[in-house]
Amino acid sequence: MDLVPEFSYTAELAAPQIVGPGPYGLRQVLPVTGGAVTGDRLSGHAAIGGGDWLLAGDDGFGRLDVRAQFVTDDDAVIYMSYQGLVEATEAAQAALAGGESGTDFGDHYFVTTPRLESGDPRYAWVNQTIFVGQGRITPGPVVEFQVFRVAA
Question: Which of 89, 92, 113, 151 is packed most tightly, with the most Cβ within 10 A?
Answer without folding.
Answer: 92
